[in-house]
Design a protein that fits this description.
By secondary structure, the protein is of the alpha/beta class. It has helices at 11-31, 49-56, 70-79, 94-103, 116-132, 163-173, 188-193, 201-217, 234-239, 249-252, 261-264; strands spanning 39-43, 64-67, 85-88, 107-113, 141-146, 177-183, 225-227, 244-247. The chain has an eight-stranded parallel β-sheet.
Length: 272
C-alpha cells in the first residue's frame, strides 16, 4: 500500500463518512447536557486506511482513531500521518505491548490495560522509544485501565475491587505512562436497552469504581476520565458521565467478520 500522500480517497466515500461523523457529533452534543468536553474516538478496525485519511483530512479533521488489533494498528500507523492520535482499544497480549509502545510514536492511549504485566511492558516500550528518539517521547503514553463491570467471563478487564491496585502501579511504577482513567465494555443486553434517559448498570459501576480509586489514591475524581459508550449506547454513556466514546459502525458502516475470527476467538463486542 502507498504512503498517505499517494493514497486516493474516493470523494463520494469521503462525503458519506463526513456526514456520518457529523451526525454522531450532533448526537453527542444533544446528549451532553452539562456541556462537558467529550472525546470521540472513531473506531476504524477492519476499515481501509483511506477511510481514516478521509476523516483526518480537512474539513472533518478527526484526530482520534481506535483500533482493536495490534498488527492492524501498526500497519496503519506506518502509512498514515503522524498527526493522528491512535488509541489501542482492543484486548492486548502482554508480548505485544512493548513493541507497540516503541514502534508507534503517535500511539496516544492504550485503553485495555488490565494487569501489572501489560503496564510494565508498555512502560519498557515507551522508555525505549524515548531513549532512541528523545524529541518524540515528551508526552507520556496515556493508559486507561479496563474494568470488567459486568462480571462476564468473556470480558477482559480487572475486577472493580482490584482496580485501585493496578491504577496505583501505573501511576507510581511506570514513569513513562500517564494514568488517564478507566474504561469498560458493558454487557451487550444492557447496551441495547440504554438510552439518554435510562441508567446502565455497567456505567454506574465504572463511575463508582472511579470514585473509589480516586479516594484511595488521593486524587480528584476529575483527574480520572471515564471511557464508556459505543455505537449502540454512547448517548446514554454521555448522560451518565462518560468523557470519551468509541464509535465505529455508526461512522464507518458494518464491518466484515475478521477472516481469522474463529481462530482468534473474536467476541461479539470486537466485531462491532
Amino acid at each position: 500500500m502507498s504512503e498517505a500522500s499517494d493514497m486516493q480517497v474516493n470523494p463520494q466515500r469521503a462525503k458519506q463518512l463526513a456526514e456520518n461523523i457529523g451526525h454522531v457529533a450532533q448526537m453527542i452534543g444533544a446528549a451532553n447536557k452539562a456541556n462537558r468536553k467529550i472525546r470521540l474516538v472513531a473506531v476504524s478496525k477492519l476499515k481501509p486506511a483511506t477511510d481514516i485519511l478521509a476523516l483526518h483530512n480537512p474539513p472533518t479533521s478527526q484526530v482520534d482513531f481506535g483500533e482493536n488489533y495490534a498488527q492492524e494498528l501498526t500497519e496503519k500507523a506506518s502509512l498514515l500521518p503522524r498527526s493522528i492520535r491512535w488509541h489501542m482499544i482492543g484486548a492486548l497480549q502482554s508480548n505485544k505491548c512493548r513493541s507497540l509502545a516503541k514502534q508507534i510514536p503517535n500511539l496516544w492511549c492504550v485503553s485495555s490495560v488490565d494487569s501489572n504485566k501489560k503496564a510494565d511492558e508498555l512502560e519498557k516500550g515507551r522508555k525505549a522509544l524515548v531513549e532512541e528518539q528523545p524529541g518524540v517521547g515528551k508526552t507520556k503514553l496515556r493508559i486507561m485501565v479496563q474494568v470488567n463491570t459486568s462480571g462476564e467471563e468473556s470480558k477482559s478487564g480487572v475486577e472493580p475491587s482490584d482496580t485501585a491496585s493496578l491504577c496505583r502501579h501505573v501511576r507510581d511504577k511506570c514513569p513513562h505512562l500517564q494514568l488517564a482513567g478507566l474504561m469498560t465494555i458493558g454487557a451487550i443486553a444492557r447496551s441495547k436497552e440504554t438510552t439518554a434517559e435510562t441508567e446502565n448498570e455497567d456505567f454506574v459501576a465504572l463511575r463508582e469504581t472511579r470514585d473509589k480509586v480516586a479516594q484511595e489514591l488521593g486524587m480528584d475524581p476529575s483527574e480520572l476520565e471515564l471511557s464508556m459508550g459505543m455505537s449502540s449506547d454512547f448517548e446514554g454513556a454521555i448522560a451518565q458521565g462518560s468523557d470519551e466514546v468509541r464509535v465505529g459502525t455508526t461512522i464507518f458502516g458494518e464491518r466484515p467478520l475478521r477472516k481469522d475470527a474463529k481462530v482468534k476467538g473474536d467476541t461479539e463486542e470486537e466485531r462491532k
